[in-house]
């Protein structure tokens, strides 16, 4: 079955329009070892009557980033208001509903996924917090989601899985403010553009460098240098798609030495130059 990356959701449902929608070409595998996307898309403006209700048979985890408008979500019997700059998480197999305010409808970017330990990880997050997040969690998640959409378009399944894992890890790192291990990941997420050195981080958190290196790999599944590069490239993808910043501005913002260094590292990870990536994904988050 050929991959489908559709420009209008009207091809699927006449009552609901997506400017961008991805639908998995793979059959649903409930026990998939890897994280997989079932659907993902961008809805720049939902209909004024937009109201989704699901029961316990809904088998996917889903995250929505709200970049426009107002609405609400009901989860585990509690109602939460929604506005621009917030995201909300909904786990599989739990009743929920969400909607737009008619006079100021939501604009959403969403990813619906499964596999790995989706239900267990999302339950862990939601048991320690409500379903709605904002601040740096929102901006980091939006960066991951735009990266996921572009990778889906390219059929880059391995890095889609890694982005989903990184997104889940980022959420987990924000649910316990008093956990020093989570504080390590939060600190690196907040300072990755400053190119923090392993030795400096180890000293700051009271570890020797070798132990800190092992600990960081346990927390994130990868070495510090690889994690920082991944965050930089993911954020570069977002800036290339969602802004008109020049390559010089992006390189300076993300802590690359110069434009040549940005191009070299970007090509290493994405397989194309930043300029090619911007052209290929023009309008994705416009």
TrEMBL record:
PROSITE patterns: HTH_ARAC_FAMILY_1, HTH_ARAC_FAMILY_2
This protein's record includes keyword Membrane: no
A Pfam cross-reference name: AraC_binding
Keyword DNA-binding included in the entry's annotation: yes
Domain HTH araC/xylS-type, first and last residues per copy: 182-280
Entry-linked InterPro entries: AraC-bd, Homeodomain-like_sf, HTH-like, HTH_AraC, HTH_AraC-typ_CS, RmlC-like_jellyroll
The protein's name: Helix-turn-helix transcriptional regulator
Highest taxon above the source species: Bacteria
Keywords carried by this UniProt record: DNA-binding, Transcription, Transcription regulation
SUPFAM superfamilies on file: Homeodomain-like, Regulatory protein AraC
Annotated source species: Christensenella tenuis
